[in-house]
Amino acid sequence: MLRVTSHAKSKRKQRYVVLVSHGEFAKGLANALSMLAGEKKEVIAVGLENGKTADEFAEVFKEAVSPITGEDEIILLGDLIGGSPLTTALNVINEKGLTDNTVVLGGMNLPLALTTVLMKDNMDKEMLPQAVLGEAHEALKEFKLASDDDEEDDI
Prior knowledge:
Blueprint lengths: L14 E8 L2 H13 L5 E6 L5 H11 L8 E6 L5 H12 L6 E5 L3 H10 L8 H12 L8 H6 L2
Parallel strand pairs: 1-2, 1-3, 3-4
Helix pairs in contact: 1-4, 2-3, 4-5
């Protein structure tokens, strides 16, 4: 009896968090995320470097997202809605046929990115945006410092 075995490991569907920005913001945010949430191979950060064109960014982005397959999902966080890093990333994602598997959020900040990384595997892609945007919005607050005069008034 002839038995055929496959040595290829079946790839489990992965949910990636992809950060795109102008300059080094995405890479710096990814660094901060690794400090808070641990090193995550499913976090990809790509920035449009100063002096580079959108076409050059597209090539770097294509390489960065090359491990992502049609079975995977992407949560794409961009610094600015309508900015060239986000629009270029979306064009690349569309070319790869991954648009239907992608959730896009703009106005990227640390609370949004951290909540996304921590919650991404616990919610479906329809519920995730509301949850993470709500958390990010709640994190935006003015921090007021009490002056020395305020303390004397309390006495």
